Amino acid sequence: MPEYSYWIIAGLALMIAEFAINGLVVIFFGISAVIVGAVKFLGLLDDTAWELTLFAILSVLSLVFVRRFLADRFMGQEQQANGPEDSAGLIGQRATVAGAFQDGVGTVLYRGARWQAQSSHPLSEGQMVRITEHDGLWLTVEPWASH
């Protein structure tokens, strides 16, 4: 098998690996390897040291310049919420106390899922509560009162 085909096969394998390895990094090594293979096929490179040098330069340049451009388009941008918004839509919902709260901490059931919860009010098992805050896996609740 000709030497250039190793570069092209390795490049294609790296590009396919990008689907398994998230981060938009490996694909640039793959593209660089395919370019080196193509340049080798055209007969413009004959020395392994130059092949490796070209591969390294192309990889670094594409990672530094192209990844920044593509990452915004393909990976999106995370934005911090401003204010008391709740992306999960839990705030204001009704839940049921799964066990009596001790020292302000207990569990609640919300749509069949058990959540860790905290409350400044004494709560007993079976009591209905309103979710007032959502922070990661923790909910802050208060007794349910019709508004």
UniProtKB/TrEMBL annotation:
The chain crosses the membrane at residues 7-36, 48-66. Gene3D superfamilies: Nucleic acid-binding proteins. It is a multi-pass membrane protein. It is found in: Membrane. Pfam families: NfeD (PF01957). One of its GO terms (cellular component) is plasma membrane. It comes from the Bacteria. The keyword Transmembrane helix applies. Keywords: Membrane, Transmembrane, Transmembrane helix. Residues 89-143 form the NfeD-like C-terminal domain. The keyword Transcription regulation does not apply. InterPro entries: Membrane_assoc_protease (IPR052165), NA-bd_OB-fold (IPR012340), NfeD-like_C (IPR002810). This is NfeD-like C-terminal domain-containing protein. It comes from Alcanivorax hongdengensis A-11-3. The lineage of its organism: Bacteria, Pseudomonadati, Pseudomonadota, Gammaproteobacteria, Oceanospirillales.
